[in-house]
Amino acid sequence: MVQFMDKSSGFNQWQADKKQTKKPLSGFLWWCILFLLSWWALGQFMSPKQSAENVSSENIPVVDLSAVPTHAITSDKIDVTVQGLRISDVKLLGIPVSASDPSPVSLLSGPDAHAEFGIVAVGTTAPTAQTVWNTTSDNTYTWRNPDGVEFTRTITVSDYVISVSDTIRNTTGHDISIAPYARIVRVPAENQSAGVATGAIVYENSDLDRINWNKLSRRSYAYNTTNGFAGFADQYWETVANISTPDQTMTIKKTGDLFTSNTASNATTVLAGATLDVEYNLYAGPLVQSNLDTANAKIPGIDSSIDYGWFGFLARPMLWILNTLNALVMNYGVAIILMTLILRFLMWPLTRKSYTSMIAMQKMQPELQRVQKLYANDKMRLQMEMMKIYQTHKTSPMSGCLPMLIQIPIFFALYKALLISVQMRSAGFLWISDLAVMDPYFILPILMGATMWLQQYLQSANTQKNKSADKNDITAQTQKMMRWMPILFTIMFAWMPAGLVLYWTVSNIFGIAQMYIIKRSTK
Q: Largest alpha-carbon pair distance within the chain?
């Protein structure tokens, strides 16, 4: 990123125009302030988010479920535990807890954590969490209340979607009122990585709303919608639920130490002798775009629930490229190296133009220094003369900065892609066991800093030969400060995902080779 900010760049040329009003020490002070602010922001940004103080004295009532039998439903993707109205302990088969723990990740598995799908009835009684259902074949459960109303529940699993279908047959001689509800109860996840939106997620009236754990600790949220879903999203997976009936009220709140997502439909009248069908859907699985696209048929809007960040238009295709390359080479570290080379080759024409412009800027230095001294007291004339020199040499002061500006959105898009990639989680490369977290031995950050220093040294080698530069010139002072940038970036990148540091290191190495080739070709 610093390779184009040497003494001959347009940025420093612009700084040189202001040398009459700035002291040489000001550049050093600004870099110190920038370093301290970056260090503070990095600490705030990278530290795990903690929930705010509990402001609710209400607690979820303890329900004795000892008499309710449990049933297991198994598919090729998940294992589910069913206990009456509740679903819990959803195991994601094939997704290990960590590189050292091969047991599958389990969602809704903590104390009191569960998803509950039930009915509130008026004019009769409905099954509760303590109701013991009669079990039949094919994951079908039945229950008949004292009034003769028959409830039949069927649970099916497709991919990561758990579908609950209720059939209510009103065999009484009077009308009854039925209001379905869906509830998810859980605790906040620990040690969430920075830069990823975690907490409650609500899709209402085609709008997606995210509420982080801290905000949710201070207040509750309510929504009225014709359709949608509500639940909770973590860094790599989410649990959300919807109801097939229209006109719903969704609430998200903290109750005691638990967070609750409620979706309740308006009451529907079931005439005497009539039957009502209600369907609930629960997605409990990873935040993988292909899985969410499949689940979108059951839970509309869930395909947009991944937080790709500001540069999502880049992060999404980059994640696809990474997964495609990994399918070919079977290693995400090698896939990151190949993708880095592809990106640098695509930017080769632009970078070559930038380097040739940099060389032209170096050749222009004697002329620029001459007009700076000649028109030091006439800023308007100075700008005109400098523009003539740029036009004569067919270059621009901003041409050297363009590749750096292009790399900024690529950097942030890749950062977000690495953070949300479930496949990248626990992916190893050489001595690194997980490319989604920091290098535990700090080897990659040190290599990145060393290659950045070498690239900067080669970049400024020609300008250092110029002995006529004023030692008090602000551009010279800035160039001295830039020597600290590799150290600053090494410290900042030490806590970044190892995959991101690998990308930056390979990019620096490619830039060094590219600089050598272009310099040889332009001699």
A: 103
CA angle 195, 196, 200 (to 5 degrees): 140
pLDDT interval class at 425 (50, 70, 90): confident
Q: Which residues, other chains included, contact 475 with Cβ-Cβ below 8 Å and sequence gap of 6+?
A: 7, 12, 13, 15, 16, 19, 469
pLDDT at 471: 46
Q: Which two tokens stand for residue 28?
A: 């050093």
Stretch 373-379: mean pLDDT? 75
Q: Domain coordinates of the chain in residue numbers?
A: 71-302, 314-521
Distance CA 337, CA 516 (A): 20
Total H helices, total E strands in the chain:
13, 19
Burial pattern 431-463, b for ≥16 Cβ within 10 A else e, equals ebebbbbbbeebebbbbbbebbbebbeebbebb
Asked if residue 151 lies in contact with residue 170, where contact means CB atoms within 8 angstroms, the answer is: no
Give the C-alpha separation, 113 to 200, whole Å: 15
Mean predicted lDDT score pLDDT of the chain: 78
For residue 266, the Cα-to-chain-centroid distance in whole angstroms is 35
Helix (H, G, I), strand (E, B) or coil at 10: helix
What secondary structure letter does DSSP report for 432? B
* Sign (positive or negative) of CA dihedral 429, 435, 437, 443: positive
Write down the pLDDT at residue 482.
62
Q: Which of 376, 356, 357 is CA-nearest to residue 473? A: 376
Instruction: Look at residue 167 in the predicted model and tell me its pLDDT.
Output: 93
Rounded mean pLDDT, 414-438: 80
pLDDT score, position 56: 39
Spatial separation of the C-alpha atoms in residues 373 and 381, rounded to whole Å: 12
How far apart CA 92 and CA 88 sit, in angstroms, is: 12
Q: Write the burial class of residue 184 (CB in 10 Å: 0-12 exposed, 13-18 middle, 19+ buried).
A: buried
Lowest mean pLDDT among 25-39, 131-145, 186-200, 415-429: 25-39
Q: Chain-centre distance of CA 498, in angstroms?
A: 16
Please tell me whether residue 462 adopts helix, strand or coil conformation: helix
Element (H, E) at 312: helix 312-329
Sequence-ordered strand ranges (E) for 428-506: none
**C-alpha 336: how far from chain center:** 18
Burial of 409 (0-12, 13-18, 19+ CB in 10 A): middle
CB atoms within 10 A of CB 203: 24
Q: Backbone phi, then psi, for 362, in 5-degree steps?
A: -65, -40
CATH topology for 71-302 is Beta-galactosidase; Chain A, domain 5 (2.70.98)
Tell whether pTM > 0.85.
no
Average pLDDT score over residue span 247-263? 89
